[in-house]
Structures are given as C-alpha cells and as structure tokens.
Amino acid sequence: MKQRSAKFGIGDVVRHKVFPFRGVIFDVDPEFSNSEEWWNAIPAEVRPSKDQPFYHLLAENSETEYVAYVSEQNLESDGSEEPLRNPHIQQIFDKKNAGHYKPKVNFAH
Prior knowledge:
Elements: E1 13-16, E2 22-29, H1 36-40, E3 54-60, E4 65-71, E5 75-77, H2 89-92, E6 93-97, E7 100-103
Antiparallel strand pairs: 1-2, 1-5, 2-3, 3-4, 6-7
C-alpha cells in the first residue's frame, strides 16, 4: 500500500461529504488502523481504500455527539464557522480560529 500525506490536521473542522455530520479532528492515522470487523461492516461498493489517511473526529449531527473514524476521501473542510457542541472538545482544545481548534499544550494520547 502506498502511504499519502494527510490533507487535514489535528484541530481542523471538517464535514462528511455524504453523511450529515461534522466535527473536529483529534487524531490522524496515516492509513487504516481499525479492526477488520469494522472494515467489513462497510458495504463493499462504498468501502474506501485502506492506503489513505483516516481521521478520528469529535463528531456531531443534528441529534447527537460521538466519535467517528473517517477516510480522507469522505471529508472536506467545513467553512461554516458554526460552533461545534461536542462536550469533549473543551478537554482537548483551547479555542477556535476560523475552521480550526488549537490543541491544548498538555494533551497527549
């Protein structure tokens, strides 16, 4: 598998291209790094390739907040500047600046 550089970084606010959710990136895997069970649960006709960055998001939709794991091909920058309400954001990030949250200095995973 050929590894690519990540298009997005920690703190970037993104939205899913297909599903109605958005979030802030809190971790990046250079390529797929989840379970085969998770991978196989994605319908084959829409399953992304594993050789691209995958992002961990503090995500939200109109109903709830959650953690999402999303391939780069399914994300785009979110330019709405609407505030995110995921309660975990304040544990990892300090403040938002035009589509980007600044990670807290003392945060490590």
